[in-house]
Amino acid sequence: MSTVADAAAQQTPAQCSRHAEYDIYLSGIHTGSMSRTETWQGKTAVVNSSSKASILGIGTRYQQRAELVWSNERQQWLTQKFHQKVSGFRARDMHASFSANGLESEVDVDGELDSYRSNDIPLRDVDTLAIQIREFLMQGRQQFRLIRQASDAIEPYQYYVQPKQTKNIAPWGELSLIPVEQTGTEEVTYYFAPELDYQLIQARYHGIILRGLIELNQYTSSCD
To answer: DSSP letter at 135?
Structure first.
């Protein structure tokens, strides 16, 4: 019996999870919080993220559930589908599914259907985008291109890895961070910490009117 149980355990992909909590700041003022949980089953994952914040005086809530998978053909993480609900500022109910190895998408925003296509780079949701940036960092890549599926367009971005910096981040103290600059429709600098499982520690949004920041305040993981 133990042999059968051992064989079944070997055939079942390992399951683990990562959970992160972030503070949200707009123009230096604390305006909300965000939580993000990755549930992994081998080479697939479900990411649940949610946030609540006050944007331009409007209370806004955000929820998203994304499913992603490792592509052996591309050797990258690809979004399979996601569902996003936003209330308040830029309210919407958005469903998106992906095919053709990530190059094609079908998007439903509040009942209006659209389709999108990329010639060479897979389309991804924002959570899979962050996971792929992390993957490229662990591979030692210094620059790369990615495309995000937005609600009414596809947004291509170029990324440039910058020299490491040291920052004091509570409650961990001094951490060595790798900045990654994103250029394109949205200019963002992401900061990842190799000492903390290459997790996203900060993201700075360089807006003309509003400058946003998210910063990690809690992180737990059962993943190797």
So the answer is: H
Q: Which residues contact 9 (CB under 8 A, 6 or more apart)?
A: none
CB neighbour list of residue 98: distance below 8 Å, 6 or more residues apart:
78, 79, 80, 81, 104, 105, 122, 123, 149
φ/ψ of 26, rounded to 5, equals -125, 120
- Give 169-175's long-range contacts (Cβ < 8 A, gap of 24+): 169/193, 169/201, 169/202, 169/215, 169/216, 170/217, 171/217, 172/196, 175/201
Tokens of 34: 């965000």
Strand partners, 179: 191
Amino acid present at 223 = C
Displacement of CA 98 from its chain's centroid (Å): 16
- Quote the DSSP letter at residue 12: S
Q: Give this prediction's pTM.
A: 0.90
- Determine contact, residues 37/221, Cβ cutoff 8 Å: no
Instruction: Tell me how crowded residue 8 is: count the other CB atoms within 10 A of its CB.
Output: 9
| Residue 183 burial (CB count, 10 A) | 13
Using DSSP bridges, classify how beta strands 143-149 and 123-124 pair: parallel, antiparallel or unpaired: parallel
Give me the residues paired with residue 152 across strands.
Answer: none
Please provide the average confidence, as pLDDT, over all residues in the chain. Answer: 91
- Amino acid making up residue 207: G
Contact indicator for 148, 124 with CB cutoff of 8 Å: yes
Least confident of 74-78, 109-113, 184-188, 191-195: 184-188
Report, as an integer, the average pLDDT of 203-217: 83
C-alpha 73/C-alpha 184 separation (Å) is 27
SS3 call for 42: coil
